[in-house]
Specification:
single chain, 191 residues, mainly alpha, two-stranded antiparallel ribbon, 8 helices
């Protein structure tokens, strides 16, 4: 094996090389490797290997030697691990979506109150309660989708639009129900 290279989109890249190739191709980077992985010959005890490596590293007190289990425990608690950060960002996105949904619901509820006379006239000229509720739900979906259409990647845009439309439907449920249940005589008489 010559080496392995991987690129991670969020953090950095990994270059895994045998030590002789590292010294040959990166002579100025001597001692700058983040990690060195060792493969012991069959039958070599971990304690003997760790002791031999410790003797080689006497001049490098900042270097630590760990076994695979300790390494995994260290990685799990590493703040460089983005799992916790991504969980926090996901929670913030969900919170922002909930606030946006409440904002749309509040706006529609206010619109129903302000447009009581208009909605009553629509009902008086023949619009059914179901049609009026559907009109307000579509108004909510259009508002939510128009506000969400700010990202450019097509796949993400379609997901965002579907989620925004769903949020708009949820937000419109109570105001649409309230508007559909308006008393016609009271609604037309409101100034």
């Amino acid at each position: 094996m010559v080496g392995t290279f991987t690129r991670h989109p969020l953090v950095a890249s990994d270059l895994v090389l045998p030590i002789d190739l590292m010294d040959r191709y990166f002579p100025l980077g001597h001692g700058q490797a983040d990690q060195t992985l060792l493969r012991a010959a069959p039958g070599t005890s971990r304690a003997a290997l760790a002791a031999a490596v410790q003797r080689l590293l006497i001049g490098y007190p900042e270097v630590t030697v760990t076994d695979p289990a300790a390494y995994q425990r260290q990685r799990a608690g590493d703040p460089g691990d983005l799992g916790g950060v991504l969980s926090l960002l996901t929670a913030l996105v969900v919170l922002a979506a909930a606030i946006a949904t409440l904002g749309i619901a509040n706006t529609l509820a206010l619109a129903v109150v302000e447009r009581t006379r208009e909605l009553g006239l629509l009902r008086a000229v023949g619009m059914t309660a179901r049609q009026l509720g559907a009109t307000l739900r579509w108004e909510s979906v259009i508002t939510a989708v128009a506000e969400a259409a700010v990202t450019l990647p097509v796949g993400q845009l379609l997901v965002d639009l579907a989620l925004a439309g769903t949020a708009g439907l949820v937000a419109a449920a109570v105001p649409a129900h309230h508007a559909a249940r308006l008393d016609l005589r009271t609604a037309i008489g409101v100034e």
